[in-house]
Amino acid sequence: MNYEEVLGGVVGLFGPTNVGKSTLLNRLVGQKVAITSHKPQTTRKRIMAVLRRDDMEVVFVDTPGLHEPRHELGEAMMKTCTLAIREVDIILLILSFEEPEPPMMDKILSMIKKADLPLFLAINKMDLVPPESLQETVARLQDIGIFSHVLPISALNGTNLDLLISYLRPFLKKGPRLFMEEMISDQSMEDWVGEIIREKVYQFLRAELPYSTAITVEEIKEVPQKQMLVIHAKIHVETQSQKKIVIGEGGKMIKRIGEAARKELETLLKKRVYLDLFLRVEKNWTRDPKALKKLGFL
Ligand SMILES: Nc1nc2c(ncn2[C@@H]2O[C@H](COP(=O)(O)OP(=O)(O)OP(=O)(O)O)[C@@H](O)[C@H]2O)c(=O)[nH]1
Ligand SMILES: [Mg+2]
């Protein structure tokens, strides 16, 4: 055991949907912990991941994007955010240069102010705007007067992330290391594999259909002789007609999703993977508390 003291703390990533919270989490800890997509409301559950430096151990908490819920699933996602605020020591609000003052701004500000914690603001996607126009937005948001620091970042390119960490430093507290060396995130292997599959669903299925899907991983079996993992997973949809679309003509769509997920899992795990996907109709699960509970959202 290592009892050396380090600087530590729990930093919550909050913000509207699609601003790059999950991309930032992955970049900070140097691994693909959370899935990302250009579609809004990708993250559904809170995910913790650890950033380790020689004298530091900072836990970052990724949360679902703040939005006005349209169904029980959305409500569960927002509840996840309000509960997550209670677990953190520092709030890092993420906005994006694409929309630095989103429609929900007032609500978001009142939510984070209530927490009575140190507040930081990172404005992401600075790579999308000309450098000379950054300062005006930074100054305008700094004028709100509640943030210890406001800084432009690019989660995609890694710009200003070391600076962000150096700003957090004085707010961290000395204590023992809390996480084992090999631990990066608090997600189970099953949940993480399910998320990788869901990312492909978001990539390949159009319009609203991804929002009607959920993944559960039923079994992950090691076959040591073959250096291989055998994975059985279910894609849940809300209706019979959605099931047909996810299967696709002659099974083409499900095959495409399965192949992309398998390839990514093989790359990330450095192992061969056999992935078996099964479709199941869980009627109106996004609005049914019982089904939400079964799928792990409540
Ligand atoms: N250009 C650019 N795109 C970015 C950056 N960071 C994230 N993105 C893109 O923005 C989109 C949304 O990223 P996510 O990380 O999924 O955003 P999120 O805030 O976690 O979204 P939700 O989970 O849906 O709330 C993806 O297409 C990312 O590739 C960035 O710094 N620059
Ligand atoms: Mg996300």
Concise summary:
With 298 residues, this protein is an alpha/beta fold. The protein is built from nine helices and ten strands.
Question: Using DSSP, what is the number of strands?
Answer: 10
* Strand residue content: 25-35%
Ranges where pLDDT stays below 50 over 5 or more residues in a row are: none
Shape: globular
Average pLDDT confidence is 96
- Ligand roster: guanosine-5'-triphosphate, magnesium ion
General description of the model:
The chain has 298 residues and is of the alpha/beta class. The protein folds into two domains: 5-176, P-loop containing nucleotide triphosphate hydrolases (Rossmann fold, 3-Layer(aba) Sandwich); 189-294, K homology (KH) domain (GMP Synthetase, Chain A, domain 3), CATH 3.30.300.20. Helix content is 33%, strand content 25%. It has nine helices and ten strands. It has helices at 21-29, 72-85, 105-114, 134-142, 161-168, 189-204, 240-247, 252-269, 289-294, and strands spanning 5-14, 47-53, 56-62, 90-96, 119-124, 149-152, 173-176, 214-223, 228-237, 272-281. Strands 1, 2, 3, 4, 5, 6 and 7 form a seven-stranded mixed sheet that branches. Strands 8-9-10 form a three-stranded mixed sheet. Helix 6 (189-204) packs across helix 8. The two termini are 36 Å apart. The model has no long low-confidence stretch (mean pLDDT 96). The structure holds guanosine-5'-triphosphate (GTP) and magnesium ion (MG). Guanosine-5'-triphosphate is lined by residues 17-23, 36-38, 40-43, 64-65, 124-125, 127-128, 154-156.
